[in-house]
Amino acid sequence: MLEMRPDCERCGTDLPADQPGAFICSFECSFCAPCAEALDDRCPNCGGELMDRPSRTGKALAGNPASTERHFKG
Known about the structure:
Protein name: DUF1272 domain-containing protein
Strand content: 5-15%
Number of strands: 3
Organism: Sphingobium psychrophilum
Region (Disordered): 53-74
Pfam families: DUF1272
């Protein structure tokens, strides 16, 4: 199950689990769409491809909440 990190690791923008617009690599590093585009869809941490993160809604989100641990280093 995806961790669903709550923020962009590059700029700190919130990435709600129930909304589109987040991008992840295979290690679940998470970025907003503008940052993913600026990074040419390559993760700066591992070099992996950034892909659209699926959203999690309704009962799935209620039973499996997103992480609250922020990863933006500011």
